[in-house]
Amino acid sequence: MNRSGDNGRPLRRDAQRNRARLIEAARQAFVEHGADVPLEEIARRAGVSVGTLYNRFPDRSVLIDTVLLDRMRESLAIGAAALANPDPWQGFVDYLEQLFALQARDRGVTDALSRRFPRTPHLDAACAEGFDQARQLIERAQRAGRLRPDFTVADLVGLLWSNAALVAATGAVAPAAWRRQFRIVIDGLRASAAHPIPEPALDADQLDQARRALGVSAGRPWRRP
After folding, report:
1. Rounded mean pLDDT of 53-61?
2. What pLDDT digit, counting tens, does each position of 121-138 carry?
3. I need a labelling partner for 31 at 20 to 30 A (CA). Which of 11, 41, 168, 171 fits?
4. Which of 14, 114, 117, 104 lies closest to 66 in space, CA to CA?
């Protein structure tokens, strides 16, 4: 059965192979470098020319929407398992720990979870589902009296940004450093340890603007050489 290109028309076998190579090359490059990886590096890994990359993916957002969607699906599975945990606090703790672990082994995860790219409808829909999962997990743990009551989804995104920076700085010298940071974070999130915070959490509009700002460079349309 022929696979279709992004314009809906069936692809020749060689075009199918090139498209599959480019997706796999982008997936691996995103793991190592995130969504800002140079186009030439993706083409080199796929064993094709940059021109072939442009022919298959004329808009960078199409490739991002395809590749990072897989990362979001993995995080959604983690969220579903956490929501199925009858212990609201443990479900939240497991959820956050597994997201941190995903970030430690795949830089594309951070981009999928904490950035917003132009023209990525499938990724946006998955992100909206992920944010709803996070909200449910937070509210469950708060109702149980275990999670500090002022913690928000925006605060969760802030923790993911912080962990991404830690992973980038320590990955080559202390790849497990994020685990110590995670334990410190969890202790600070316990309701029993909470103290009033004068600064408010980001509201929905502020969070959206911040995520859009982070996604601008990787989300720009590609320019042919």
Report:
1. 85
2. 999 999 999 999 999 999
3. 11
4. 117
